[in-house]
Amino acid sequence: MVTASALLAAAALPLLAAAAPSQCHTWKNVKIGGGGGFIPGIVFNPSEKGLAYARTDIGGAYRLNSDDSWTPLNDNIGSSNWNHWGVDAIATDPVDTNRVYLAVGMYTISWDPNNGAIMRSTDKGKTWSETALPFKVGGNMPGRGIGERLAVDPHSNNIVYFGARSGNGLWKSSDYGVTWAKVSSFTNVGTFKPNASDPSEYQQDPIGIAWITFDENSGGSKTVATPRIFVGVADLGNSVFVSNNAGSTWTAVAGQPTGFVPHKGVYSPGENVLYVTYSNGGGPYDGTLGSVWKYNITSGAWTNITPPSPSGDIYFGFGGFAVDRQKPGTIMVAALNSWWPEGIIWRSTNGGSTWTSIWEWVSYPTRAEYFAVDASPAPWLFDPTVTDHEDVGWMMESIAIDPFDSNHWLYGTGATILGGRDLLRWDATPRNVTLKVMANGIEETAIQDLLSPPTGPGILLSGMYDAGGFLHRNLDVAQTPTDQFHLYFSGTTDIDYAGNNPLQLVRVGTNLQELASSNDGGVSWNKIYASNNAQAGTIALSAGGDIMVWSPSNMAPIRSQYTNAFTTISALPQGAAIAADRRNNTVFYAGSTNKFYRSTDGAVSFTATATLGSATTVYKIVPNPTLAGDVWVSTSDGLYRSQNYGSSFTKIGGPTVGGHFDLGAPKTSGAYWSIAGFFTIDGVAGVYRTDDAGVNWVRINDAYGFGAADANRVAVDYKVYGRVFVGTNGRGIFYGNPSCTSPPPTSSTTSVSTSRTTTPATTTTSSRTTTGVSTSRTTTTSSRTTTPSSSSRTTTTSSRPITTSSRTTTTSSRTTTTSTRTTTGTGPTQTHYGQCGGIGWTGPTVCETPYTCQVGNPYYSQCL
Ligand SMILES: *[C@@H]1O[C@H](CO)[C@@H](O)[C@H](O)[C@H]1NC(C)=O
Ligand SMILES: *[C@@H]1O[C@H](CO)[C@@H](O)[C@H](O)[C@H]1NC(C)=O
Ligand SMILES: *[C@@H]1O[C@H](CO)[C@@H](O)[C@H](O)[C@H]1NC(C)=O
Ligand SMILES: *[C@@H]1O[C@H](CO)[C@@H](O)[C@H](O)[C@H]1NC(C)=O
Questions:
Q1: Best of 342, 371, 392 to mutate for ligand 3, by most ligand atoms within 8 A of CB?
Q2: How far apart are CA 163 and CA 250, in angstroms?
Q3: Which of the four CATH numbers 2.30.110.10, 2.130.10.10, 3.90.550.10, 1.10.1040.10 does domain 15-25+445-454+487-750 have?
Q4: What are the CBM1 domain coordinates in residue numbering (predicted)?
Q5: What is the C-alpha to C-alpha distance for residues 312 and 307, in angstroms, rounded to an integer?
Q6: pTM of the model
Q7: Which of 272, 293, 299, 323 gets mutated to test ligand 2 (max ligand atoms within 8 A of its CB)?
Q8: What pLDDT digit, counting tens, does each position of 815-841 carry?
Q9: Residue 204 CA to ligand 1 centre (angstroms)
Q10: Beta carbons of 726 and 12 less than 8 angstroms apart
């Protein structure tokens, strides 16, 4: 690590052939709070008090802290191994509790070209090594909530098993996960496909091995391999298999139920019982029938212990299952998806002979709810104005009771982790537990757009899948329902503002006809009913705010003026990157492959004006926020700039590949904008910044990888120099400042060792295919191959923040040169929402009546 001052000095040097210098930054999450996505797995270590892990399907794994917060463990993962953010299984070692393992990989189908890997750590996930597998792993595939399909032998902890998808069978390591070999004696590798009648490869790939569970009481010695091992497979025939000789031979367990997929197989050491939950689907969204069974290992008897449904019939499968190790026979189970009227969790204190549920019908439509919700750690998750919400949750594949504390429990939903520390109140009279949001520190949202607005109440605006997006008034405080962009929208894919009237915004969303506008900087939104059947993609709003150009994901770009019906722009190809000039209302820009297009008639027509080298993709077009005709374009062939409305371009030295980027507050007042984004410079991919319009570059991502570069979004703060926002696909939003006060991510380097039995495929490469999404119940499969979108949003600053609106362009008859901002008195005054102070600020410090200058942070005071 180098100090900031040394780096600032280095940055001033001319660009050399060696890698661009790095400048230390402090990166942390922009706090949304509470997760924001599906939590497929939660595991407690049975031997070390307080040690637990959670995994996500697109954003890596986390470790629990004693204050109920979580520490991310995979923040160093970048473009070369982006699929490692898909965690299909996690195993914590019961013997050497410092050891933990992950099975990583995003998709087992063509969306993900990379094979999977087993990652292993000997320091609780601070640092990792890994072994490449010779096949793919599906952290974001159907069935990702079953499991865990990775397990450490509780007696001989050098032995680790992994159950693969896609018919690849059961694998075993005897050297702490360094080398792996297929268990050839295990032949029932699972034939169940998520949906055999859907032709898509996503629905056709077999889910494979579901879980591996050791009978820790079996065997005389606690130091040789555990003899009895159960393996569940996704199969509608026999699905539970057992070995009594440490994995040499396997048989189907006699008398087992068939017809469903076993989601969990949980061993209860105090009872010597294996509990199994079943669903007729692979999960996590489906399931219309299921059951819960208990297998008495001593007697060999199977007993159906399916809990009674509050409504009488079972219309769901069963997912998460937990045993209380302190109280043998105390168990809990969740309905995987009870969409209506509410998710269901049951608890039994007698091994499933009788159950109580978390709510019951009193008489329709009245229900007794034996819980209270505490959403204080992430208020946005429970909007009190929405009456038909599901408090208990959905996609409940994972429930865990702390093995050292019967009051402490956690469970994953499609949106967060709930649970609490008063679980024994379930057994008291009256029955009443607190469902608290227990996902502090987990930031799992999939960001589609970021915008640092020139003015208005927000520091940042975000668009994202599932949660919709937010107006961020504070970067470090959990979000509220008020500032969430959920109205009319399932997800927001792009936001843009009018250059001459920045409080005016438009945004587009993932579903058909999702288009809305705001006139107050994103506080309130109105649906625009002119949207044809377009969906998703990007939107550009003209400088004056009257013309919209929308480049949707499902059709060629379209145009509307005054919110009239959209018409097709025939000159532009589907998926084109688009942007509006920030000052000239008639000028729009577009790009696709290596073609640059311009419109000078308000997007009625476009003509190709220039060629962008050998680019195959235009990632983003960012016009200068205050100067017409000055425009920057990032492409697969580097970064280009035009200063003549796109008539011709200069290629910027340094970047060979450009991803998303932005222009923001300059280093010094009057200087050109600082520019930052995802670039490859001197062969090194990372986040880079230039303060001199591309002459010198400095790398600023430290040890952070941010996952797939081309799935990421960037905003450079309009007002605060050096503050850069990175939106990721599964790890939420980060912001970085040029300082070194906090440590780099806990994960550090990885080393690759290879399997001894098969040729391992190379880990990694491709960064050009981006990942998909997951999470909420409304998106089913989602957009997997997001074409790195495009442009439009932009943002940014001037050397002196402009203030709003058309007022600045109209010249009053009373003054010849400037506008209403120059008033009588001691000096210039700032308008509403404008900056009026902060470190380095040289502009007006007095606000126009009736506003006062209020300190937001040391760098920024605002007229409010
Ligand atoms: C399976 O796929 C078919 C064809 O796409 C679809 O009609 C059906 O609803 C799907 N079934 C489930 C359970 O999702
Ligand atoms: C399992 O079966 C044995 C033998 O019948 C019996 O003694 C034991 O109580 C059973 N265990 C449970 C948890 O029901
Ligand atoms: C449980 O507690 C909550 C909040 O204190 C209350 O609203 C609810 O009525 C209680 N439920 C029962 C069944 O007592
Ligand atoms: C805006 O651009 C158009 C087309 O290039 C040009 O004719 C016009 O003069 C420009 N307007 C301003 C105010 O610069």
A1: 371
A2: 14
A3: 2.130.10.10
A4: 828-864
A5: 10
A6: 0.86
A7: 299
A8: 222 222 222 334 577 777 777 776 666
A9: 12
A10: no
